[in-house]
């Protein structure tokens, strides 16, 4: 059996505009000035904590009430984004076809730092959820990428055998490559994603289009 672990944002789809627009909508709700969407886009692909800290830094500067303000931002953002999760977001070219082919014989997982509820809803709206065996979000367990714990948990859940099964981690970030290597998976870096380089941990393979993944395996 082959296990394919896919990152979500920047690998299967581009959700930056919807995430940035939700940040601005929450800022407006909180009485804050709107920010340039292009600037917000640079902060939405590094995990939810980084998004809150960088997109709402002016609102969170009160250290005495930080925890209360942070939870307020988190709740408002997660609510708005869930309701507007697939307005501008689009799959990358040929992603649906690649996942459909892989799912016919292999197990396909999504390992993302986006919350699990939001990830499943986005995959559903994009028409990809039917090809996914399981989803691990940033809140699905105690750690998130670059930790390999999400991969370990989902692989145990689906009876991965390191002696006979093969694992592949497919993603566009250094966190994806680190998590995959720590798990013992072959790592595949996607050049079409959010990042222009894989980082200090070099992947086993680089692909320039989704269909090249099928050629590799």
From TrEMBL:
Keywords: Hydrolase. SUPFAM superfamilies: HAD-like. Pfam families: HAD_2. One of its GO terms (molecular function) is phosphoglycolate phosphatase activity. It is an enzyme of class 3 (hydrolase). The keyword Hydrolase applies. Its EC number is 3.1.3.18. It catalyses: 2-phosphoglycolate + H2O = glycolate + phosphate. GO terms for biological process: DNA repair. Pathway: Organic acid metabolism; glycolate biosynthesis; glycolate from 2-phosphoglycolate: step 1/1. Transmembrane segments: none annotated. The keyword Ribosomal protein does not apply. InterPro entries: HAD-like_hydrolase_sf, HAD-like_sf, HAD-SF_hydro_IA, HAD_2, HAD_sf, PGP-like_dom2. It comes from the Bacteria. GO terms for cellular component: cytosol. Belongs to the HAD-like hydrolase superfamily. CbbY/CbbZ/Gph/YieH family. PANTHER family: PHOSPHOGLYCOLATE PHOSPHATASE (PTHR43434:SF1). This is phosphoglycolate phosphatase. It comes from Silvanigrella paludirubra.
């Amino acid at each position: 059996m082959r296990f394919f672990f896919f990152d979500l944002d920047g690998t299967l789809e581009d959700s930056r505009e919807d995430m940035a627009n939700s940040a601005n909508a929450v800022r407006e709700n909180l009485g804050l000035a709107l920010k340039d969407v292009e600037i917000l886009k640079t902060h939405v692909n590094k995990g939810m904590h980084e998004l809150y800290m960088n997109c709402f830094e002016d609102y969170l500067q009160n250290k005495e009430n930080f925890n209360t303000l942070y939870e307020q931002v988190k709740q408002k953002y997660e609510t708005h984004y869930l309701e507007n999760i697939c307005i501008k977001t689009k799959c990358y070219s040929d992603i649906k076809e690649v996942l459909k082919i892989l799912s016919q014989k292999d197990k396909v997982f999504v390992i993302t730092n986006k919350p699990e509820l939001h990830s499943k809803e986005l995959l559903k709206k994009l028409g990809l959820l039917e090809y996914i065996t399981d989803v691990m979000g940033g809140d699905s367990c105690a750690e998130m990428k670059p930790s390999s714990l999400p991969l370990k948990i989902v692989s145990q859940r689906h009876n991965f055998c390191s002696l006979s099964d093969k694992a592949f981690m497919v993603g566009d970030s250094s966190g994806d490559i680190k998590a995959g290597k720590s798990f013992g998976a072959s790592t595949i870096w996607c050049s079409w994603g959010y990042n222009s380089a894989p980082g200090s941990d070099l992947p086993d393979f680089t692909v320039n289009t989704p269909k090249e993944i099928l050629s590799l395996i």
